[in-house]
Inverse folding.
């Protein structure tokens, strides 16, 4: 049973950095594509980044490409989202998710964490 728990959110000034972590406490982690999504107030949930189960393929939304990096440590059953050069428009609740063969569509992810708030001040 996949059980995802995010951490690492917080308040940061524009231009700063944060690293989000997502631990799969159920330890079935390695079979799934892992993704990060975010949802700002009044907006729909949007795709941020995803990484395949092997870690060999990563894909990013255009809005974060070059600033965010997704990675994973299978031994620790943890997925990371390194966020640099943060902008106020990055403010949102960030969710990690797991899904077999998933990509950018949130409907393809079967397991979700509870979310962690990221706030970027100008």
């Amino acid at each position: 049973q996949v059980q995802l728990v995010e951490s690492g959110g917080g308040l940061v000034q524009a231009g700063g950095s944060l690293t989000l972590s997502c631990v799969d406490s159920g330890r079935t982690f390695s079979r799934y594509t892992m993704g990060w999504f975010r949802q700002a107030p009044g907006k729909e949930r949007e795709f941020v980044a995803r990484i395949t189960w092997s870690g060999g393929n990563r894909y990013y939304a255009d809005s974060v490409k070059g600033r965010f990096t997704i990675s994973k440590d299978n031994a620790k059953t943890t997925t990371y989202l390194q966020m640099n050069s943060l902008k106020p428009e990055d403010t949102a609740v960030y969710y990690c998710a797991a899904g077999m063969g998933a990509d950018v569509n949130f409907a393809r992810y079967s397991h979700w964490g509870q979310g962690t708030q990221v706030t970027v001040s100008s």
